[in-house]
Amino acid sequence: MGKLLLLDIDGTLMNSKKEIPQSAKDALIQARANGHELAIATGRGPFMIKRVLSELNIDTFITFNGQYVVNKGELIHKEALDTDTLSKIVEYAEQRDHPIVFLTDERMVSTIDYHPDIDEGIKSLKFPHPAMIEDFHLEHEVYQALLFCEEADQQQYHETFGNMEFVRWHRVSCDITPGGRSKASGIKHLIKATGHGIEDTIAFGDGLNDVQMMEIAGVSVAMGNGEEEVKQVATHVTDHVDNDGLAKAFKQLGLI
């Protein structure tokens, strides 16, 4: 059996222009031809990765940092955020003028009509500012939420909501997921379906939400542009995403 390759999107598959380098596309095609399976492992939601899935012909993915997992087009795991906990976070954040964006498998919705931090953060993903719908989280399954605050304000959320994870992905935003849930927990659900052992997994990433995935995977590769914490836990460090880092890693590991 070939390896199961778990690929982060932003900063790993996609370069700083939010494009997939041709070298990465060629490497993925060759790796698949060599018998390896490709899967996406991202903090994004399913509706946010449709173009990537189509472009790379991939139908297996871990999204929302492990909250929503699909194998070969079939949903195998989903876990929505607890509504009561989310309501408490929303109330706490509103008192501090920190907006929140809710994510379902199909769309994103804001707690506020417009906020420059939301605009900056979401725009970095090449998406428009989401529309506001009042009390959206009370009526829909929310798999992940984005809290918009700067790093200096983040610690109070860790202290107040110890049962939740707040993982920074942008200067003005962090992901909100349940404690103990991550891309790593998503991998555990996925390998049950694919039949791979954990030792057959190779994880590629660059961000703080990749750390637990790196720790659990059989082999892990941090991009040259990655956070220092990611590089420290990875078994390999490759070149910058803008300098064919992914393709170079595939060659170094003998996948192509």
From TrEMBL:
One of its GO terms (cellular component) is cytosol. Keywords: Hydrolase. It comes from Planococcus glaciei. PANTHER family: PHOSPHATASE YKRA-RELATED, PHOSPHOSERINE PHOSPHATASE. It comes from the Bacteria. InterPro entries: Cof, HAD-like_sf, HAD-SF_hydro_IIB, HAD_sf. The keyword tRNA processing does not apply. This is Cof-type HAD-IIB family hydrolase. One of its GO terms (molecular function) is magnesium ion binding. Gene3D superfamilies: 3.30.1240.10, HAD superfamily/HAD-like.
